[in-house]
Write a structure and sequence with these properties.
With about 550 residues, the chain is an alpha+beta fold. It has one domain: Cytochrome-c3 Hydrogenase, chain B. Helix content is about 40%, strand content about 15%. It is globular and about 70 Å long. Bound molecules: nickel (II) ion.
């Protein structure tokens, strides 16, 4: 057995370390995912005014800013049973959904795609043949002209001539796991560059109603503050225009690229490469006048005909293998590394991550786009069904095939297309509400008259999966705050029963051709879209106060 240490895992958010044990054939036999940075946002929130929870919780992450901001505000509203006007709810959804689109496109092109695209090979492509290759996957491919592809090659040649590859340096170029033809590499490289522009324009859409991004600031307890923007038809139009443009890229580049990838890695998909434990979790979210975008439910062991109801009471958290004191999980308890610099994992009780282990009915779960698509589809959500069916038909896949490394990316792309289309329903709900019902954006309340003591919770689907926030208010101050983020679920370490978290399980059986360049393992990890800053949270067991600090 040989140990491979990947630290840090790059092209993700935050500090992740992965260690895998491979046998003589290079096949992964055991895996450990480790969150490498302790955080304590819960401690900062303590003793604060609950109305400030949103702005502070938003700082949990630099990527998922709006997700925590909104969840924290909703958590406080839940605690005080405050009603939020319809307009405010819709605006919150519009900010959140634009963030989904931004996050997913950035994830695929700028974080994941270079695990499949050998940029250096794109120089060998013939532009005329590239035009034809793109037509295999779309009737009307995005910016599909010889002149454009020649331009992209010229840009790349400039990097090469300068003796370095600029943003494309330090990768595993030439690795045997890269399978795309030069032309296919050029198509994806071209979209990589287009997606940089996409990223700026979709950020503007988030900022129209969010005030700014990252860290939107237009949500307040009881409603929203971007009143003049929603009442101004020009601002609503600006938002619509950006979404329409985004749809062009999603339909003509992102989805076709996913079909291209499926085609190139079909054998790996059929072998189940990158499949985790098959336990999935999601909550009902994004309600509009015609239904909801995503259904709530729980699937165990890929039993796709048997979706169980989601019950938050079945969630528990463990720190057996995480760097916290066993009987006082608010207290960090760091144990050192081995002499060779590797994680201490030899004994079944060794601790190796700052991420605690959330479990549902004592099972490790996977959340995210794949979970949402599987659960909403099998629960016969009539809105999502045509999007999933079309992709599966056009790429000749079955539903189970999505539970793989490439499939996880495909599920994310399907979801992006679905959201970009349904955003228009939310806009029309907003316009109808403003025209026929009311223009209210904030529900008035008297803070002094609210209860001294209250408890609240919020469950949301956010780009990377299920996000839960919990608050305990005493003397009108935050006594306790607790978060379980999507990556807390997916990157969780083992528990004392030895069950692996989703990242770890997905790595088992992966074949690594070159143990010095473990590209195959990185692909699997990145397919989950890790966000490590979000993932590390101290646990609020027994609702004890977070007041003790000790790093050994
Ligand atoms: Ni995050």
């Amino acid at each position: 057995m040989k140990k491979i240490i990947i630290d840090p895992v790059t092209r993700i958010e935050g500090h992740l370390r992965v260690e895998v044990m491979v046998d003589d054939t290079g096949t992964v036999q055991e895996a450990y995912a480790s969150g490498q940075l302790f955080r304590g946002i819960e401690t900062i929130l303590k003793n604060r005014d609950p109305r400030d929870a949103g702005l502070m919780a938003g700082r949990i992450c630099g990527v998922c800013t709006n997700s925590h901001f909104r969840a924290a505000v909703s958590c406080v509203e839940d605690a005080y049973a405050l009603e939020v006007p319809k307009n405010a709810e819709i605006i919150r959804e519009l900010i959140a959904l634009a963030l989904f689109i931004q996050d997913h496109v950035v994830h695929f092109y700028h974080l994941q795609s270079l695990d499949f695209v050998d940029v250096t090979k794109a120089l060998e492509a013939d532009p005329a043949q590239t035009v034809q290759a793109a037509q295999h996957y779309s009737d009307d491919p995005f910016r599909n002209s010889e002149a454009h592809y020649e331009d992209v090659q010229k840009k790349l040649q400039t990097f090469v001539n300068a003796g370095k590859l600029g943003p494309f340096s330090n990768a595993y170029w030439g690795h045997s796991a890269y399978r795309l033809s030069p032309e296919e590499n050029l198509i994806l490289l071209s979209h990589y560059l287009d997606a940089l522009k996409f990223q700026t324009s979709i950020s503007k859409a988030i900022a129209i109603f969010g005030g700014k991004t990252p860290h939107p600031q237009s949500i307040v307890v009881g409603g929203i503050t971007s009143v003049m923007d929603i009442l101004n038809p020009a601002r609503v139009n600006d938002y619509l225009f950006i979404i329409k443009e985004a749809k062009e890229f999603i339909d003509r580049a992102y989805l076709p690229d996913m079909k291209l990838l499926v085609n190139a890695y079909r054998d790996e998909i059929k072998e189940g490469t990158g499949r985790a434990n098959g336990n999935f979790i999601s909550v009902n979210s994004f309600a509009f006048s015609g239904g909801t975008l995503f259904e709530s439910g729980v699937i165990f062991g890929h039993d796709l005909n048997n979706v169980k109801p989601f019950d938050p009471k079945k969630i528990s958290e463990y720190v057996d293998r995480a760097w916290y004191e066993e009987n006082d999980p608010q207290t960090p308890y760091y144990t050192d590394l081995n002499k060779d610099g590797s994680l201490k994992t030899e004994n079944t009780q060794d601790k190796y991550s700052w991420i605690k282990a959330p479990r549902y009915q004592n099972q490790p779960m996977e959340c995210g786009p794949l979970a949402r698509i599987l659960i909403s589809y099998t629960k016969k959500n009539k809105h999502v069904k045509p999007y999933v069916d079309r992709f599966l038909n056009e790429s000749n896949l079955e539903l189970i095939d999505l539970s793989t490394t490439v499939g996880r990316n495909a599920a994310r792309a399907i979801e992006t297309q679905y959201i970009a289309e349904y955003l228009f329903k939310f806009i029309s709900d907003l316009l109808q509400n403003l025209t026929y019902y009311d223009t209210e954006t904030w529900g008035k309340y008297d803070f002094e008259a609210l209860p001294e003591t209250a408890k609240g919770q919020a469950f949301f689907e956010v780009p990377r999966g299920l996000l839960s926030h919990f608050i305990n208010i005493e003397d009108q101050k935050i006594a306790n705050y607790s978060v379980i983020a999507p990556t807390t679920w997916n990157a969780s370490p083992k528990n004392n029963d030895g069950q692996r978290g989703a990242y770890e399980e997905a790595l088992i059986g992966i074949k690594i051709a070159d143990t010095d360049n473990p590209l195959e393992a990185l692909r699997v990890i990145r397919s989950f879209d890790p966000c490590l800053a979000c993932a590390v949270h101290v646990i609020n067991a027994k609702e004890k106060k977070l007041n003790r600090y000790k790093i050994t």
